[in-house]
Specification:
The complex is a heterodimer. By secondary structure, chain A is of the alpha/beta class. In chain A, strands 1-2-18-17-11-14-15-16 form an eight-stranded mixed β-sheet. In chain A, strands 5-4-3-8-9-10 form a six-stranded mixed β-sheet, sandwiched between helices. Chain A has helices spanning about 40-45, 60-70, 100-115, 135-140, 145, 195, 215-220, 230-235, 240, 265-290, 315-320, 335-340, 375-380, 390-395, 415-425, 445-470, 480-485, and strands at about 5, 35-40, 85-90, 120-125, 150-155, 160-165, 170-175, 180-185, 245-255, 255-265, 295-305, 310, 315, 360-370, 385, 410, 430-435, 440-445. The longest helix of chain A is centred in the last third of the chain and has 29 residues, at about 445-470. Chain A folds into two domains: about 5-45 and about 280-455, no CATH class; about 60-255, Rossmann fold, CATH 3.40.50.11440. Chain B is an alpha+beta fold. Chain B folds into three domains: about 1-75, Alpha-Beta Plaits; about 80-170, no CATH class; about 170-205, no CATH class. Chain B has eight helices and six strands; from the N terminus they run E-H-E-E-H-E-H-E-E-H-H-H-H-H. In chain B, the strands form three sheets. Chain B has a two-stranded antiparallel sheet with strand order 1-4. In chain B, a hairpin with a 4-residue loop joins strand 5 and strand 6 (about 105-110). In chain B, helix 3 packs across helix 4 and helix 4 (about 110-115) packs across helix 6 (about 140-150). The radius of gyration of chain B is 19 Å and the shape is globular. The chains are: A alpha/beta, B alpha+beta. The interface between A and B is large, with 69 and 66 residues.
Chain lengths: ~475, ~210
Amino acid sequence: MVAKFNPSVRPLPPKPSRYGPDPERIKTRTVDLDGMVSVGVRDLFPDFAKSIYPSKKGVKAVREATVAALEKIDMSMIRPGDSVNILGSHHGFTILGGDPYAEMLKATRDVIVERTGAKDVRLRAGVGLRFRESDEYIERFGLDKYFDGKARGVAPIDEGIPIETEIGTLYGIKKCYDADWIVHAHNSDVREIHFHRHVDRAVKPFGMSYARLETRSTYHHNLGPRGANFAARAIFNSDFVQKKWTFATFLKPTPAGIAGVDADNDLFALDERLSVDNFRYYGKILTLLSRIDECVAVLDFQAPIPYVFSAGMIFANFSASSVDIFDLDHPLPGYTWYTESFYGKNGKPLIPDVAPVNPAIKAIVVNYAWGGYPSVFWAKMIPTIVVGEWQADVFRRDPQNVEFMKHALVAEDLQTGIEMAKRIAGTDKVIAFDGAPGAMNVSRSLASDLVRMAPDVDGDVDQQLVPKWCRQRGIAVGEDAGVAAE
Amino acid sequence: MRVINMFAEVDPVKCTGCRTCERVCPTLSIKVQGRKEGKKAAVTLNTCVGCGACSERCQFGAVSLKDLAVPRTIRVDPKAVDGRKISDLCLKAKLHPEQVVCFCTGTRAEEVAASILLGASSPEEISRTVGARTGCKVECIQPILRLLVAAGRDLKPVEGGWQWYGLTPTIWDIPESVVKKYSSRGFYFEEDRALFTKLLEAEGGD
């Protein structure tokens, strides 16, 4: 079959950040190379929800959706003289350039002020392992001004506060909880499935973005690969948090764009709704990606290696997908920190339960990525080529990746890097993790594979996998998940 | 093991002496000295590992990382300590000796155990000797605290510091009522306990 494909979708331009290379150095993107085409997410899976953003309305559509979602929310606990912390996360700002999430935060603030009369409404934006990342977004989107000088990035090494939970003492970031009330303003993007395994996805920031380092270490070392996210539930369920709890408002991305905004006073009800949607949408993308037989992955986005994404799916999930990572019967996907920690000194797993890194990824080319996440694991496991000394220096000067370049080669330019990777990999199939909205930028050869495989994936996910994933998490759903999710 | 190729440098003009850098330094290598308006942060270069905690949290842009002219390496060789003692300590902390505890430096439990058996008695001393806690500064604190407790060390957080506060629960501490309550909600505690047990019984890979 000779299929006609769309021209490749241009990714967002590089952004300046203390964690990445100078944007001026990123002259060529993967989509600039001959043979790259684009496969639209809705061309692959026509039943995906329509997007309100990107759209002609722009971020106004997000504001309208936020206001509409908040209409049903009970805010009566907030009195005019009270203080309110809107809790956000860096991650929301990485979705479609960050404008939709920033607009949801602004609209949420405006509705709270209007409905309750409270004037002291602050933004506390958490981070992952790049402690100034949210400060960069606060500045870029003018949030400090919008929040009357009360927007602030918070980090896991900031002053903490003990929180008594049903499993013992955990620790939160004090500044997240220094108001009378908290609002959980997040998003439903699946992101780190390998870590949270989509168990309590909506609750996760209570064990991560809003949590101190002790809690995060508990998550990744103490509770097990399928119990990790209980750190979040334990904190959320604590008396301390419940006394401050008001509601959650979530931006709802799908691999095709922003589908809307959801809000609820009941976080677990919201979690169940978003879980079913995520299984249907992101589940199809990840299942499709996991059926790729061989490829070169080009990382080309303003994020650390695991967080660059294609059709809404981050590279870490793709690299973990030698097994179905939504399926909780698999304890240790090809990548998680539990997986990484279980490799012995001889470079082999200490126990047979460790799944291999996705063997379809024959080589990695890093054209544009940030530091700020320990990424040596991938360079050790997969032949890795870094484009340009400027990108190599990002890793060399990053305390989390000092030894990354010991395991990687440097190419002078992207074209040469990809040619080298193709020879190493023995394949001409290329996929770009470049964050292009609503589409996957791939080589023509891989595009043909994706189009051919998509109908089977569509049926398998709807008929078999979504019901299984839901059953494992105690989520009631009909056997025909497509109907249930509507 | 940690390769150190950077160090922190303070701009005294920008430094306000607020002590945030001092409170977050994992090796206690930056301290505010002097009195009143003259209070400024100063770096002890022979223990600074260039982790960047100070520069990342300084709200005044007063601390930056600079390249070391000659990188140096810190490590503790587990072979310098009786292997049986290392194994016993790791297993008491419910860690496999070869288990990676610090993803940034690749430090394994056995190296932290060796550091403790050679005299390290706090996370700060461990960070100075093996480099763990000096990459992301976040993820490896609990296995380190577990090893210190297993060795009988008394955990004392740095007074006035935010480096770490205390030990937290492990999967073995979760009450059975909690395990039972959430087992149908996707939290596979029993299965993950079995996984850890299998790990602890596994032979080493080396």
